[in-house]
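Q: Hi! First time doing this. I have a protein sequence and I read that you can turn it into a structure. Is that right? Here it is:
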Amino acid sequence: GYVYRGQRLQWLTGQYLFGDWISGQIWSLPPDTDNYQRIASGQLRVIAIVPDSAGEPLVVSHQSLTSLYRLVPNADFEVQQRQATDFPRRLSETGLFRDTTKHEWASGVRPFGIAHPMWQDGTESQHAVALPDSSRLTVYDSPRPLESVAMFNSRLHYPAGAVLAKTVSVADCRIETQVLHFDGRQWQAYSYVWNPQQTDAELAPAAGQQLTLPAAGGVSWRIHSRTECLQCHNPWAETTLALQPEQLHPAAAAGGAESEWQRLVRDGYVQTRTADGETADPLSCVRRSVTEVGQGTLEQQARSWLHANCSHCHQPNAGTGLSLSLRMWDADAEMSAWGKVPQKGTFGISQPGLLVRGSPHQSVLLYRVGSSSVGRMPHIGSREVDFAGADLLTRWIRSAAGETPAAVQSPQDAAQPELPDLAAITTEQALAVAATLWRSHPAADGKTSNVAAPEQMMTLALTLARSENAVVSSLFEGFLPSDQRVRRLGPGAVYADVARLDGDAERGRALFFDQRRLQCSKCHQAGGVGSPNGPDLNEVGRTSGPERLFESITDPDREISDRWKTQVIVTTAGTILTGVVLRESPDALDLLTAEGHRVPLRTGEIEERRAEVKSLMPSGMAAQLTAQEMSDLLSWLMTLRGR
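A: Yes, that's right. Below is the predicted 3D structure, encoded as structure tokens:
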């Protein structure tokens, strides 16, 4: 971007113009405030905004061809503003319901059920789809280019005006109705929050909001921001995560019963096509189906859980910066999980892997799923641990073929492990205790397994939940009542939450270099110590203020210099690599992959290269920290002022 000094757009004089390659949006930023505003939006892939000879902006868009565009005043702006003002503020005004109080869908709105819902803190969901007039959703048997969304392919091609809705409830009390609307070019996400009388729901703020749910024991509930919604509902995952053939045609349907997928085709909501546009058998559009909860083999159940809860982000190019892929149809090798060394945290586990065959307690993925805060996955979408899901993954990993090192085979892998020494408990031992409790804890449906946890094991868990070792306590916080848990910063944290606290720089330094938790020094140099694989922080206290540092930690994708933008490279051999470029010349470059490997590439080996507005730095770090810990960390970073 650049600071506008032209004559044609005088209301932008002196403002910095910049754009976003992913969304195609363009903003202006005044020199004396951080209140930037969106001034244009289109289906462009913006790689630069530069002045022409008269100082007027030229927008450079790179897709299959590189094109130049101009910014011109929008004559319809006022009309569009009025339409935006008229946007339905209440759910009853959307036309989706015949009777909002009774939650009765309107005529033409088609409810549907899915095989394996994602875990959302014990809530239940009702899904529906609405298509305008007599239009249909076209589903191809293989991905086809989306006319309206540059660069992306999808099997699912929706008509303009399509709407998907999901109402989330707990204990028969409706919390929110989430709405996805396709405007013909982009998907827009909205949430409506139900009133206490359960008669209607109000449009939630764009930034989201935090609720407390009395019906669920006072637990906290996040109404996600519209931007957060689209992190999971992304085009790499085909956006609509529920309305997909694999969720609508579960594996059990192969036995002959008509599936929801087949009914949607029969009822005229979906038409199926081959890549050539010919009518296709609906089943040819289904990849490997998920199973219904509790159905199928242990491997099918575990893979279905991972698909529903993780795969929308953990698949090629979806923005995690990892090669890990957890789609139902990924073969073992394509998952890049078994035996793979974790690159974003080991949490003190000995000989760790993302997944280690036969050894759940060396499997970092299991730690992340079982953690309430430190390293928790997913970092948005749910906050409570899915005990039944964690137990399912434990049993699946233990059942997988392969040798387990004798040193960690016992007692950690026993159904009821020996009680460890609290003063020297390891992460593996803590995982073993947690796994025993997951097996006996009530599941979301209120049922328990036949394995009863010894009373002393539960007493131990409640003690460990208050451990000063956050890596350990994070595995047991979920067993405490919500009002007894450590209060940590959540997804909606703002600088004001920590601004008035007195930080301790020494504690902040220890936190920065703690390899079990944040692991900042794996990528950053600070105080002359650490790795040069990320931005240098040796002078960050001189170049940034505490509020800006807070934003960089809580939202690492907000501001990324070109030097550290994630690069996706497709080689001439068909290999897809993701990482940051460490060195580059006209003839070659060195890529640091998300796994920490340095890959030298000659220019002739690169078939395609694109930059993503995505940082390799993990999101969700604020959820791991208390406000005091964040204040400590900021206090230490502010001491880094170089020589």
